[in-house]
Amino acid sequence: MNSLNTPDTMLRAKDSTMEDIKTDVLVIGAGSAGLSFAAGASQMGADVTLLEGHKMGGDCLNFGCVPSKALIAAGKQAHAMRTGRKYGVKPVTPKVDYADAKRHVHHAIDTIAPVDSQERFEGFGVRVIREYGAFVDRDTVVAGQYRITARRIVIATGSSPLVPPIPGLDTVPYYTNETIFDLMEQPKHLLIVGGGPIGMEMAQAHVRLGCKVTVIEAGKAMGKDDPELAEIVLRNLRAEGVEIVEGAKADRIAGKAGAITVHTDTGDHTGTHLLMAVGRKANIDRLDLGKAGVRHDRAIKVGADLRTSNRKVYAVGDVTGGLQFTHVAGYHGATVIRPILFGLPAKARTDHIPWATYTDPELAQVGLTEAQARAKHGSALEVLRFEYDENDRAIAEGKTDGLIKVMVVKGRPIGASIVGSQAGELIGLWALVIANRLKIGAVAAMVAPYPTLGEISKRAAGQYYVPRLFQSDLVKTVVGLVQRYLP
User: Fold this and answer.
1) Is 144 annotated as a binding residue?
2) What pLDDT was estimated at residue 16?
3) What is the pLDDT, as a whole number, of residue 469?
């Protein structure tokens, strides 16, 4: 969410007509972070005022998680029709109605929207004002005709697509995640600049829906993920027809609608449509943070307690510039309830935060990757592995391309990486283990139903005991003695 950018002279001119509001807590932004806090705080008895000048639900509901997963689901249906031969089902070429696929996307948004609606939050007792806001001093924000003074303020304005200053970009039509889901005409050839999670998810969804797709990445595609696992995803995407061009920096963009060329230092690529997916930027430009004494650069600076340099002001979610995931924003929103409502200390952790990329196969992570764990713990690290092709459910479903790695130090998991079917679901167990600092034995002792992919986690945990039990001369000696002398 952005904020009102009104000159001081205009604010002074409106003083006589403004309505003054005093509130316990002012929340700026009705995305995941803001809504999580507002719902909890209001139901616990706080007087909460919520500002939102754009769409309730923020980026996740309207432009991110929900629409992207709905489009991925449409692509998955088309892909299943083409790939049934190994199951004894004759493959057919699906007739894709791209506009209908987008209507499915909007149906998903519309179905979920009431959960984040103004009416629902007003039902909780939240005062909802549909305006942008800007600080005028350390505890006062002006939004439209309202001047709001609050004991505490929570900034939850989120992030928006980063559009880099590439020469020529402003001369051609292009899409971001905020606009691509409104495109109803099927792209013949979609160019995607950016090979991160958004770029790769949209690439696979579109190629499955019948588009030609080229991904242009300046570095390594999926470069922030474990390279061994990322390569499995990239191999599958290439096999489906996605062209992935790595090490190619976009130097210039030219052309017109229907014929757009991205000029890179390694060659040129021409397509009919262009999607920019190079990252995110914190929405702080219009907040006038200087008047509130809130330190920031490209994002708002916070401590582990999510408090800003102004002790009355907290910042949560994407606007802090950390891990930019909806579930992190929700976690932040819940975390600051403790200090704001009860005056008790609370800190946000990052070591237990999971995330997933919803390609097929999925890639999920929690805690440290293998490379990070080796750099931090050296020879104390043990890496447990288990392949999907040894799991009976994966074999039965023909989804054997994948593996799990669990990073363990002194019997305690510190990270898990999974690539394969339902990796995003499987990572939840490891997030629980790491969040509660459980030992590997807790997972090894679990009994998973057979046959499920969940057995992959149990079998990986069991690898910890292989050298300790099955390859130990001492254990074999003890067993031998017991068997010899046990009555």
Assistant:
1) no
2) 60
3) 82
pLDDT for 5 equals: 47
58 annotated to bind ligand: no
Predicted local confidence at residue 65, as pLDDT: 95
Structure tokens at 24: 């316990």
- Whether 199 has a binding-site annotation, put simply, is yes
Q: Tell me: is residue 194 an annotated ligand-binding position.
A: yes
β-strand partners of 48? 25
- Please report the pLDDT score of residue 479 as a whole number: 86
Helix spans in 90-196 (H): 98-112, 118-123
247 marked as binding residue? no
Tokens of 345: 């200390």
Cα–Cα distance measured from residue 278 to residue 64, given in angstroms and rounded to the nearest whole number: 14
pLDDT, residue 2, reads 41
> How high is the pLDDT of residue 4?
43
Q: Is 200 annotated as a binding residue?
A: yes
Of the CA atoms within 13 Å of residue 298, those in its CB half-sphere come to 9
169/167 Cα distance (integer angstroms): 6
Query: Among candidates 148, 116, 155, which has minimal Cα distance to 283?
Result: 155
> Which residue bears the tokens 């001047």?
147
Burial of 168 (0-12, 13-18, 19+ CB in 10 A): middle
SS3 for 343-402 is CCCCCCCCCCCEEEECCCCEEEEEECCHHHHHHHHHHHEEEEEEEHHHCHHHHHCCCCCC
The residues, ordered by sequence, that sit 6+ positions from 337 with a Cβ below 8 Å of its Cβ are 37, 40, 41, 44
Confirm whether residue 157 is marked as ligand binding.
yes
- Each as own residue / partner, the long-range contacts of residues 383-388 (CB below 8 Å, 24 or more positions apart, any chain) are 383/407, 383/408, 384/408, 384/440, 384/460, 384/461, 384/463, 384/464, 385/460, 385/463, 386/456, 386/459, 386/460, 386/463, 388/420, 388/421, 388/453, 388/456
pLDDT at position 9, please? 45
The two tokens of residue 62 are: 């309207």
Q: Is 195 annotated as a binding residue?
A: yes
Q: Is 318 annotated as a binding residue?
A: yes
Residue 187, marked binder: no
For the chain, domains (ranges, CATH) are 8-56+117-161+281-342 (3.50.50.60), 163-278 (3.50.50.60), 354-470 (3.30.390.30)
In terms of DSSP bridges, do strands 313-315 and 127-129 run parallel, antiparallel, or are they unpaired? Answer: unpaired
**pTM higher than the cut 0.85:** yes
At a CB cut-off of 8 Å and minimum separation 6, what does 282 contact? Answer: 157, 158, 159, 296, 298, 299, 300, 318, 319, 320, 321
Residue 17, CB-side half-sphere exposure with 13 Å CA sphere: 7
Low-confidence ranges of the chain (pLDDT < 70): 1-16
Identity of the amino acid at 236: N
